[in-house]
Amino acid sequence: MAKSNNTNKEMSFLNHLEELRWLLVRSTGFILGGGVIAFIFSDFIFNKVIFAPKSKDFVTYQFFCRIAQKFNLDQSFCSQDLPFEIQNRTMDGQFSVLIWTCISAGFIIAVPFILWEIWKFISPALYQKEKKYAKVFIVISSLLFFLGVVFGYYVITPLSINFLANLEVSNIVKNQIDINSYIGLVKTTSIACGLVFELPIIIYFLSVMDLVSPQFLREYRKYAIVLILIVAAIITPPDVISQIIVSIPLLILYEVSIYISKFVQRGKKLDTNKNTNLTKTE
Asked: Which residue windows are transmembrane per the record (predicted)?
């Protein structure tokens, strides 16, 4: 049970709710602050970041084009242009896109601060030795999130855009994509990958709470591998190399999570043995 910072008494349910409320308030403030920064640099964010995957000069397309040419694979990445246009269909469409994009960028910027707030909220329920890992938790969690965002933006997003842009049910249909649909794909994919890359951290806390074990993760490894390969096959062109490039980071994360769960379980066994020995000694 979490304890108050000012007293040694256990916090009541209402005190927990109050702490949670302030966590949400401060986190919202950090997101809005990051949104203001994003608004200042909105021209760069839209022209150089969000709309960059629409151009065939994008680094990912060039990379996959060179691989396709080298190994004589599907060369859809080598085409000159993506067959779609981006349109705004409502009067307030661009204003709405500007605001929500800045808020989304603000969330990405604020992630380290939000993680710090989450750590402060859960740390009273942890053992003293676990509280010492606050800086490690913030650094590793933030790094994993930003790596996930980069992976989502430079790998998953362009692969998805390329696949969906070149998919046609009939040559009669022309792709005129709404701006909300396009930007929603970029934002959702990037942020979702950032959250997925937090898997080792999530497994750590689930293992601490005895909700997950390395045996459980090993038992369901084959299902996880199949799911990862299916997702990779859907979003990539029909060649093995592209699917492997997408699958490898996710498979590595899953394997790392198994070792993290094993590490937590081993530490808990050592603590149990120490307590048992101390009890016998007394």
From this structure: 20-41, 97-116, 136-156, 189-208, 220-238, 244-264
* Mean pLDDT of the residues in the chain: 83
Which residue type occupies 257?
A: S
Note the pLDDT tens digit of each residue in 65-116. 888 788 777 676 777 678 889 999 899 999 999 999 999 999 999 999 999 9
What is the 3 state secondary structure string of the chain?
CCECCCCCCECCHHHHHHHHHHHHHHHHHHHHHHHHHHHHCHHHHHHHHHCHHHCCCCHHHHHHHHHHHHHCCCCHHHCCCCCCEEECCCCCHHHHHHHHHHHHHHHHHHHHHHHHHHHHHHHHHCCHHHHCCHHHHHHHHHHHHHHHHHHHHHHHHHHHHHHHHHCCCCCCCCCEEEHHHHHHHHHHHHHHHHHHCCHHHHHHHHHHCCCCCHHHHHHCHHHHHHHHHHHHHHHCCCCHHHHHHHHHHHHHHHHHHHHHHHHHHHHHHHHHHHHHHHHHHC
Whether 4 shows a pLDDT value over 50: the answer reads no
d(CA 265, CA 204): 10
The whole-number pLDDT of residue 11 equals 62
Q: Are 135 and 112 a contacting pair, CB within 8 Å?
A: no
pLDDT class of 2 with cuts at 50, 70, 90: very low
Residue 194 in tokens = 């950032």
Residue-range domain boundaries for the chain: 14-76+85-197
Please tell me the pTM assigned to this model.
0.82
Six-digit token pair at 31? 């997101």
Say if residues 102 and 39 touch (Cβ distance below 8 Å).
yes
Say if residue 207's pLDDT is above 90. Answer: no
**C-alpha to C-alpha distance for 242 and 72, rounded to whole angstroms:** 13
